[in-house]
Write a structure and sequence with these properties.
The protein is mainly α. It contains 3 helices and no strands. About 85% of the residues lie in helices and about 0% in strands.
């Protein structure tokens, strides 16, 4: 059990954060380089800035707000899914002239 917690805390979570930051940086820089991929150094530097700023932002908000944020994001995701489902069904009914 101790090995699993160690692997999760020391390897999986930081790698997950790095991958998300690199993807965000790549797609953020993509419009500035329409004909080719953005330079690797610029992508990595923007990813580092994103990680540092997100850590600073979480420290600024405080523990209580950060601990509540996954719940709030979950609620917004459910609201978005319900809204999308409602609009899809409404447009399908209009196409069939049931409304």
């Amino acid at each position: 059990m101790h090995k699993l917690l160690h692997n999760t805390g020391m390897i999986v979570r930081p790698c997950n954060t790095a991958i998300i930051a690199l993807a965000f940086a790549f797609y953020t820089l993509r419009p500035f380089y329409p004909d080719c991929d953005p330079p690797g150094d610029a992508t990595r530097m923007l990813a580092v800035v994103c990680i540092c700023k997100s850590i600073n932002f979480c420290q600024l908000l405080g523990r209580q707000v950060v601990n509540k944020s996954p719940g709030l994001l979950y609620i917004w995701k459910i609201v978005g899914i319900d809204y999308n489902h409602y609009n899809r069904n409404r447009s399908a009914l209009k196409r069939k002239n049931y409304s």
